[in-house]
Amino acid sequence: MVQLVDTHVHLNFADFQADLEDIARRWRQAEVVHLVHSCVQPEEFISIQALVSCWPELACSVGLHPLEAAQWTTETGRQIACAVRSGQRVVAIGETGLDFYKADNTSEQMTAFWEQLAIAHDLGLPVIVHCREAAAATADLLHRFVARHGPIQGVMHCWGGSPAEAQWFLDLGFYLSFSGTVTFKNAKPIQATAQTVPAGRILVETDCPFLAPVPHRGQRNEPAHVRRVAQQVAELRGLDLETLATQTTLNARQLFRLAVPV
Questions:
Q1: Which candidate, 64, 59, 95, places its Cα nearest to that of 77?
Q2: 3 state DSSP class of 71
Q3: For residue 205, which of 181, 190, 234, 226 has the smallest C-alpha distance?
Q4: What is the distance between the alpha carbons of residues 251 and 66, in angstroms, rounded to a whole number?
Q5: C-alpha 172: how far from chain center
Q6: 154-156 and 127-132 strand pairing
Q7: What digits encode the pLDDT tens for the residues 101-134?
Q8: Which residues lie below 8 Å from residue 144, measured CB to CB, with a gap of 6+?
Q9: What is the DSSP string of 180-195?
Q10: pTM for the complete prediction?
Q11: Most buried one in 8, 37, 139, 257, CB count within 10 A?
């Protein structure tokens, strides 16, 4: 039996409001047994928690996306910590990180990232890290944080870098999560990393509604499509789908401490 975990979704986005019940039916048909709902800013946590209350297989994070880093204040940090303590099935902080592709407010992004790492460390939670055109800076900041505060767990979500860059984060103890981009024809560095990342550190995700895998590229993405992502990663690694699914599901349960369905 195949069991899959989509480790990064955004189901509270408007793209899904008209047919969310059908989407849930399809992810169950695709044998997706857990989903981790990411958070862009603390203000959306209420809507995320409403979804968590509807579907027992849904867990969530809370955090501030790097493209929203200009909003960061000490109050933002307090909101995130309070949400963790008061919410249902909150399993991570994020998504946080650095994005130098769409924004150049480096200092603001680094401050928000560091502060969220501190919250995660204090609360004993992993971090969901967004990293775009910022691998070296992200690795450097994580190394500095670990040197000062000690180890922290997390995942590099929607991995888009090279095998050499991937090793920086593997050396820190992080997991790497692959999205629909691993199915794109020109995604050679991502595919190379998917072939070499250790079995115990690999995850799969959709990042829906973005980045639908081939043959759905250009369409709205949804959690059921994580099966196609997993199939591609399995093929790259010379495995059958069930073997890859078993490993990635075990990894997701370990990182996010997800309860095994009864």
A1: 64
A2: helix
A3: 226
A4: 26
A5: 17
A6: parallel
A7: 999 999 999 999 999 999 999 999 999 999 999 9
A8: none
A9: GGGGSTT-HHHHHHHH
A10: 0.97
A11: 8
